């Protein structure tokens, strides 16, 4: 199964890496938004939803850190890890990277966590994607299992309520999916949530 997902960032978005260019401290990832970043955000969002009882019928090891995930699967993988993979095991879901062309450079002030005040001499520059960019990526499921499609769609749904990258808010919607026509969750992803 393969389908397209449309992403619109509602805030400035940074999926950063260490910069190799001298004028920016936090550069945008050279790949744009890697599929692995999207999958990681999907994992965190759906793990949170299952842990908090917002959806039923799926298993979660409750872990998002690779070393803890591997430890949790000594007796078999949970549904989330069957879908998204875990160390030494590929999942059944692939996400394409997203090319990003429009960037802005912002100057930021680093904040001291203990006092919530600005740190002395702590300005930094960051590359960000400005709000309201419409981007598209592709999801491919290497299974015909409707349960795995449903879990994928739930993870996208809850990602809309979560964050991507360094705290960026996003919205998602999907193109029509003909497989598994009885899945109720599809109708909630057909339009933008945040208009």
TrEMBL record:
Segments forming domain CRISPR type III-associated protein: 24-167
Pfam assignment, any one: RAMPs
Entry-linked CDD domains: RAMP_I_III (cd09726)
GO BP of this protein: defense response to virus
Alphabetical UniProt keywords: Antiviral defense
Protein name, per record: CRISPR type III-associated protein domain-containing protein
